[in-house]
Amino acid sequence: MERISTGPYHTTYKVGDIRVTSLRDGYVDMPTGRLRQPGDRTFGGDLPAQVSLVDGALRLSVNAFAIDDGHEITLIDTGSSNAWHPTMGFLPQALSEAKIAVDRIRSVAFTHTHLDHIHGLILPDGRDGFPQLARLLVPRPELDMFRSEARLSRFHDRAQPLDPGQRLSASIEAIATPGHEIGHTCFRVTSRGETLLVWGDLVHVPSLQFDRPEVAWEFDGDQEQARASRLQILALAADNAYCVAGAHLDSPGVGRISRTETGFRFEPL
Length: 269
Prior knowledge:
The chain is an alpha+beta fold. It is globular and about 50 Å long.
């Protein structure tokens, strides 16, 4: 992968013949008590020293990713718009900075249906974020969850089910990674022998969960399954020299994975 442009809200990479742009929707600060050890135990005062804090809180980047194959752009996740914290909702600024015209985004696919991934379908002023949207893909087990979001009612009937193994295009394939949510999905992007895994919420706190992948997150729907999916994808990336792109890895959230004696290491690209 090669970085070809960057700014405060975006970084664009070349993956074979494809352009992948990390889009910074913003960040959210979370209490350290969200981290969970096996058995749903909190860390208490034992949080490892390498975990960086901002005013005592964990700062999580919120990233979406645009995949441009030269014909159309597929957007993976949409950020939160004005549905959550005011430190988020900067996806439109990121798209503008990256010189990505919203009219070219005709497909949107969700890794899962938590609010910081789906509400960017609608701008704060109520207009559609992507006026030419032709395909909206939601993990099949989460369709009812998506359709329960009243603010997104205009999109309920437009949502199509997304299944593991489904190809969104010649270069994008869905991979099941349940645990954080029942239908949580990763996307394998491949072009000319290069591969990038866009993996949603497999890792929330990169300063800890690569070295200790057994650590879970309070909002994981099934912590044990989330651990298993994290280990599966970390091993897949490390053993095949894939790059990865994470929704909550420090912006721009793109890098490589390698194994260590006790876990894994993330190296930003």
